[in-house]
Design a protein that fits this description.
Layout lengths: L1 H27 L2 H13 L8 E8 L7 E8 L4 H6 L3 E2 L3 H11 L17 E7 L4 E8 L4 E8 L1
Antiparallel strand pairs: 1-2, 2-6, 3-4, 4-5, 5-6
């Protein structure tokens, strides 16, 4: 009788530990966390964790790494985001044309497109060794960060 009770307690403890481990790992490897970690590893930019990833879309071959990735994040407190990179303010027609060209053929759901009509801040980075470009576009009125990656 004592042996059966001891096994039940042991199994209960194992189940509790497994449930806790799964909860911790699921948060650590959520899609938004994985993507933000990928930005850090690929581009050397540490973005703060967003409260919400509200949209993502990809076009092109993911196997060869060619294509375009588009993500939209919403931040409740953008102070850490403002410190993440050296943002440029004001309009930049070259950035606007490149981003529009990259996203033109993607079927982006209405309301999640990049809209350059309002105020925005931008940061761009080119990895010349592998012909990749990164565009970070922050729209303060919506506390939205749009990330466009072009893998040529």
């Amino acid at each position: 009788m004592m042996i059966i009770r001891g096994r039940r307690i042991f199994m209960l403890r194992v189940c509790v530990i497994l449930i806790l481990a799964m909860a911790v790992l699921s948060e650590a490897y959520s899609p938004k966390e994985t993507y933000i970690r990928g930005i850090r590893e690929e581009w050397g930019i540490t973005l703060p964790t967003a409260e919400w990833e509200i949209y993502n879309e990809a076009a092109g071959s993911s196997f060869a790494g060619k294509g375009v990735r588009y993500h939209v994040f919403r931040y409740q407190d953008a102070a850490a985001l403002q410190k993440a990179v050296s943002w440029h303010r004001g309009r930049n027609m070259l950035v606007e044309r490149k981003v529009d060209a990259l996203l033109r053929d993607m079927e982006i759901t209405k309301g999640y497109e990049v809209n350059f009509n309002g105020e925005y801040q931008y940061f761009t980075l080119t990895n010349r060794g592998s012909a990749k470009e990164l565009f970070l576009l922050y729209f303060p009125a919506q506390n939205r960060l749009s990330v466009v990656e072009d893998y040529i």
